[in-house]
Design goal:
It is a single chain. By secondary structure, the chain is mostly helical. It has two domains: about 60 residues, no CATH class; about 170 residues, Orthogonal Bundle (Hypothetical protein af1432). It is about 55% helix and about 5% strand. It has 14 helices and four strands. The strands form two sheets. A two-stranded antiparallel sheet has the order 1-4. Helix 4 packs across helix 6, helix 11 packs across helix 12 and helix 12 crosses helix 13.
Length: about 325
């Protein structure tokens, strides 16, 4: 297991000298983690200025301190996002980083799925941010470059799905929140796939790929049994790998038999996967990702109307 799994990144913008919790903070240098502040020392304005001058965007904490830190960041979100002295990009880093930490908790502690108010609170903040901030995607990309793929991917898909639904469909707030929750936990079934397969850098064998494909149905069944989630949430978890031409999984349904939320999630899922670094390849640019997806769309992978609208919306955001 990579030692990076024992560390979590935190944006320095979210480290307030006034009331930051007493946890040790580390710098990352050459793949190593070096103590910057021990738990007994206050993080001061001088610290912030020093890190800012050295263009340090993130400090790191041990994963064992994340319960304290996650509670602090989630409880402070409303105040942090309302501050006038933080830029839009800085606020985005704080919001997305907090959301990534939640998804990591979700995967590591399945009982977290019962804490719906926590998830709803994060999704509400993401929805408000992507709806009003032109640079929402830029700050998201900054965070995704500093976290593990599967967790950062979940937050990115949630942000993209909420943006698309907000622009295209006149949904009540409760349904929008369900869209965000479903998108945020869309890959939850991956907890049932062995780490050996998930961490593999080489191409998967047919048997391994078959096991990975089971994550949609397994995640759906687990979350449905919990009785906590709406059909909108469950549809996204189950159908985000279905394809408009019927060549997807787990059920092979096609066209508008695929719930609309699943159709949108499928587009956002592919785009996010393409523009993020993976173990076996570097991230594609936005332009290259759209080019690849256009070819898939020609072959019937996506709802053509929704896909074209997605391209228009996300291209405008990337040129902002």
């Amino acid at each position: 297991m990579s030692k990076d799994r024992y560390w979590r990144a935190i944006s320095i913008d979210s480290i307030s000298p006034d009331y930051f919790p007493s946890v040790a903070l580390y710098l990352r240098s050459g793949g190593n983690y070096v103590l910057y502040k021990d738990p007994d020392r206050m993080f001061t304005a001088v610290d912030f200025q020093r890190l800012e001058r050295s263009f340090t965007e993130f400090l790191y904490v041990r994963s064992g301190d994340m319960d304290v830190l996650s509670e602090f960041m989630e409880n402070s979100l409303t105040e942090l996002l309302a501050r006038d002295d933080l830029s839009s990009v800085a606020k985005g880093r704080i919001l997305y980083q907090t959301s990534v930490n939640y998804v990591i908790d979700l995967f590591e502690s399945p009982e977290t799925t019962d804490n719906l108010p926590r998830c709803r609170n994060l999704v509400q903040h993401i929805l408000q941010y992507v709806a009003k901030e032109p640079l929402a995607m830029e700050s998201l990309q900054t965070v995704t470059n500093n976290n593990f793929y599967i967790f950062a991917h979940a937050v990115q898909v949630a942000a993209l799905s909420l943006l698309l639904h907000e622009k295209l469909f006149d949904l009540a707030n409760d349904e929008m929140i369900d869209v965000g929750i479903g998108s945020l936990i869309h890959d939850y079934g991956m907890i049932f796939i062995s780490g050996e397969i998930l961490d593999k850098n080489d191409a998967l064998s047919d048997i391994e790929y078959y096991k990975v494909k089971q994550h949609t149905q397994k995640g759906y069944e687990f979350l449905k049994r919990s009785g906590n989630y709406s059909e909108v949430v469950l549809n996204i978890v189950r159908y985000h790998h279905e394809r408009y031409d019927g060549n997807g999984y787990p059920t092979g349904i096609k066209g508008d038999d695929i719930p609309r939320s699943g159709q949108v999630a499928a587009i956002c899922d592919v785009y996010s996967a393409l523009i993020m670094d993976r173990a076996h390849r570097k991230a594609n640019t936005h332009a290259d990702a759209i080019k690849i997806m256009r070819e898939e769309a020609k072959n019937g992978a996506f709802n053509p109307e929704i896909f074209n609208q997605f391209v228009e919306i996300i291209s405008k955001r990337n040129s902002a």
